[in-house]
Amino acid sequence: MPSSVPSFAELLGQCERSAVHLEMRDSYAATDRFEAWKRGERIDWEDRESWWHPYDQLIADTVDRGVVIRRARVVSEPVSEYIRWEHYVTHANVSAGEQVRWLPRRQATTIPLPGNDFWLFDDALLRVHHFSGDGAVVEDEITAHPEAVKLCSAAFEAVWERAIPHHQYKI
């Protein structure tokens, strides 16, 4: 049965001003790239063809249209192995045009945070990620519910204000 949830590319394609992403887990489902990193394999950042993916191009094209894309990550410290890897591969996100910041979880105590990671498009439409215990995405939910949008927008902005820019966050 086909999903009624629009793809990420569709949602980003309809975006006119901003897309923000809040991530709050210390690990997500393992990927081949993560497993390779754990084995000691590293990316040759000078060889863009070897690491530039369709996602990176989608972000770059969207930023070129004038959409501001920001990603904030709330992380426990010391960081998990997965977050250490995420920090490493964030070079690709930044190269594509995303602005990325990191907030140590202990600095988020007074921020009312939603229970799930999300994308918020143009301060109007939410794509909420629901995960299993091992970090695999179980489903995505799309909502424009005003209370949910307001909570998620305020949470993201509060995290963003306190967070450390990617190039300054040392792991």
Automatic annotation (TrEMBL):
InterPro entries: DUF6879 (IPR049244)
UniProt domain DUF6879: residue ranges: 7-170
Xref: Pfam families: DUF6879 (PF21806)
Source organism, top-level taxon: Bacteria
Protein name, per record: DUF6879 domain-containing protein
Species assigned in the record: Streptomyces alfalfae
